[in-house]
């Protein structure tokens, strides 16, 4: 049986890693139970990239690096993304991974003119997401955890926006039939988000750390795994959309404070 490969493009803060694990462990926890093997490839440790014939799917993690710096390892992954795209293998990019996919397929990623986005934010789905399997079961509006300076500034030709907010128009994108990217972090939980706020904000004591759950956004990962399973295990397709909740429905009541 083929493997879902998590291409680990960076590491979290050492103290966070000690308490809660790292990017790949957070992702694996939320992928759900599956008969498909999952393997992490640590790119910064110069682990070799797998043969595409062995791959059922790929997930590109976030990173504390910047896509616009064009680091050697990042440029190498860009070329690999193009190969994945040519083989129609399911691929999901998260934050840095999302931005790198955009760049690799002909778009541009750089600093967001709207500034840094950090904390729990509200995101609205687009009409195009209504039939997209990555958003199966999602409310029209949902909350997600974020921490980023850069964004996918310009999308490749034929890319479709699936979700956005006032800070970033490209919160979720379908780049091709089999390739998706999300700017938010579906792998984060409350504890991880608090860690990032405390590490990155100069005056964290002035921030309300009572961030809430983002259970809908977590579902991105299990939905992606379902897409892979349907293809790899020849399961009956569930790609048809189940239907949205009522137009006014959101994941949960909005909190007074949204971090920026």
From TrEMBL:
Q: Name one Pfam family in it.
A: GATase
EC annotation from Swiss-Prot or TrEMBL: 6.3.5.2
Q: Where would I find the Glutamine amidotransferase domain in this sequence? A: 26-199
Q: Determine if Ligase is one of this entry's keywords.
A: yes
Q: What keywords would UniProt list here?
A: Ligase
Cellular component GO terms held in the UniProt record: cytosol
PANTHER family in alphabetical order: GLUTAMINE AMIDOTRANSFERASE YLR126C-RELATED
Stated name of the protein: GMP synthase [glutamine-hydrolyzing] (EC)
> Which species is the source of this protein?
uncultured Sulfurovum sp
Q: What is the lineage of its organism?
A: Bacteria, Pseudomonadati, Campylobacterota, Epsilonproteobacteria, Campylobacterales
């Amino acid at each position: 049986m083929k493997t879902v490969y998590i291409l680990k493009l960076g590491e979290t803060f050492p103290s966070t890693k000690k308490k809660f694990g790292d990017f790949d462990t957070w992702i694996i926890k939320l992928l759900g139970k599956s008969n498909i093997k999952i393997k992490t490839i640590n790119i910064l440790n110069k682990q070799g990239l797998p043969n595409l014939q062995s791959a059922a799917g790929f997930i590109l993690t976030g990173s504390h690096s910047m896509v616009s710096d064009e680091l050697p390892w990042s440029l190498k992954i860009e070329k690999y993304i193009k190969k994945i795209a040519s083989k129609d293998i399911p691929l999901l990019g998260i934050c840095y991974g999302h931005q790198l996919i955009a760049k690799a397929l002909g778009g541009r990623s750089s600093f967001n003119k709207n500034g840094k986005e950090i904390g729990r934010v509200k995101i609205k789905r687009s009409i195009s997401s209504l039939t997209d399997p990555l958003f199966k079961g999602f409310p029209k509006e949902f909350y997600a955890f974020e921490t980023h300076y850069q964004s996918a500034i310009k999308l490749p030709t034929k890319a479709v926006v699936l979700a956005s907010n006032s800070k970033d128009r490209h919160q979720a994108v379908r780049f091709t039939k089999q390739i998706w990217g999300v700017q938010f972090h579906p792998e984060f939980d409350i504890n991880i988000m608090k860690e990032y706020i405390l590490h990155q904000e100069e005056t964290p004591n002035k921030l309300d750390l009572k961030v809430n759950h983002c259970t809908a956004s977590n579902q991105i990962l299990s939905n992606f795994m379902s897409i892979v399973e349907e293809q790899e295990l020849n399961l009956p397709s569930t790609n048809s959309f189940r239907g949205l909740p009522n137009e006014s429905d959101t994941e949960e009541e909005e909190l007074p404070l949204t971090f920026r």
